[in-house]
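Lecture 7 notes. Example A: sequence first, then its structure tokens.
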Amino acid sequence: MSLFRDDGVVLRTQKLGEADRIITLLTRGHGRVRAVARGVRRTKSKFGARLEPFSHVDVQFFARGSELVGRGLPLCTQSETIAPYGSGIVTDYTRYTAGTAMLETAERFTDHEGEPAVQQYLLLIGGLRTLSRGEHAPHLILDAFLLRSLAVNGYAPSFDNCARCGLDGPNRFFSVAAGGIVCGDCRVPGSVVPSGEAVALLGALLTGDWATADAAEPRHAREGSGLVSAYLHWHLERGLRSLKYVDTGNGSRAARGAPGLA
């Protein structure tokens, strides 16, 4: 028998039986963990209220060595709230849809259970904290999170120097297959020519230059979101289900990507 404790963010929940749930968390020390929380769907359960999506919690798990508990999963035996980020997210549609896409992204980038993913965990904590406080526009926070998640997982896009030959920028063309901005000599079929303002915005979001990001015009933010969506779709090999519901301030984002990107 073994007990282990970790802090993590609840990514999603699934019903199990009449009163239980399967909780998926991204934890600091154990990466993505799925565990059974018994009795949490009962109306009198205070334990269950702490294990909702967006919650940052300290959880104790129980497992029996190599023997699997429940349906091959450990049990959540205790939970304490560290930060209830959901309270500042779920009551606002734009924050909620952006936050849901962030949770799905974190889960998709942590495919293997039990493998530490500390950088992704810290990114998620920072992103949810910023989102819950309303410090910036939700779609900008989401795009910053997506770009940085790509970067920490080895897919950092270039927004200045050529992604192929390293030619000093600024360069004109953008290709998801080539890794971002490319020069005229390295241009590949399917490349597009985004506006300089959209490219500058994405560079600012990647590096944390919020003064530049917050000053961006809505049309350039929408153009940048299309580039981010296409780039993420390429590297995940399929899009995020939740991304099409994200509100960009001018209707649904609709995971449309950028026209002409290949």
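Example B, a different protein, same format:
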Amino acid sequence: MKISVIGTGAYGLAISHSLAKKNNQISMWTENENLVSEFQKTGNLFSILPITLSNNLSITTDLKENLKNTKLIYIVTASKYIENICREIKPYYTSKIPICIASKGIDDKSNELLSDLVKNILNTSNIAVISGPTFAIDMANDEPVALAIGSKSIKAKNMVLKTLPNDSLKLRPTKDIIGIQLCGAIKNVIAIAAGILKGLGYSESTQAFLINESLHDIKHIIYYLGGNPKTILSFAGIGDLMLTCTSTKSRNYSFGYIIGNTNDIKQIKNYLKNNTVEGYYTLDTVYKLLKSKNINIELITTIYNIVYNYESPNSLANLLITKK
């Protein structure tokens, strides 16, 4: 079976590597001609991840070729590119082909969940989303990892469950496609806050304080936006939150650390220029979305004011003590 993977960053490559274990033909798509050249010369993409790739993987910059005769599509790009990707996919897409979204975030133009954005542009309900505590390098190295899969489409859910899980990757299904995506997006925002606390020199105890408080806030946001609050207990919730908020592998955490440690606007902007920090964009979108619905989440507002309005990072620790 042919499977298309849209996006050949570290996570896209890790997912392609996992999919290739079941002897499907995996076609990866990228805009980067250099990656195609590297793959043609070496059969690998060591510039992305230091792993040996299966011979049933291929890579192309031709989206039409990537999608030709495909039975399943995985979208694994930064959330801000999803709209354009879907519009480029549309001429070659039929609504019967299931789509699995592995990207995390909320569309910054429409304030839509990515599943809604994909559904509206491609006119399909065959959509699943995956999210959970997995760094690309760990998945690629075949370490035991787990993801939550959210879908209301039986076809999409079954196709993902058939193709992605393996002897080192576990998937646990749920119908709460809203909660899975909100957890996956907002945990990046909380990871920035965790990095800020670490940069300020606070202990693991204070970071655990933050994580515990954020669990309650994310649960409330899920409820207010129509999801199941219990999803906070899933791999996409507490699992991913714990991982992203405690590891320097997370660019969101590292970004927050720079804010807390230096509070230097030049260094902060330089990091954003050279790294994709999903939480930075998600923070702006979530803040505006909550504000438009008159939902007040003090923690989100405080992080927003630190990151976007350059308020003192110390206000975060102060909030934890005073927050009701």
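Note on Example B: The first strand starts at residue 2 and ends at 6. DSSP finds 15 helices and eight strands in the chain.
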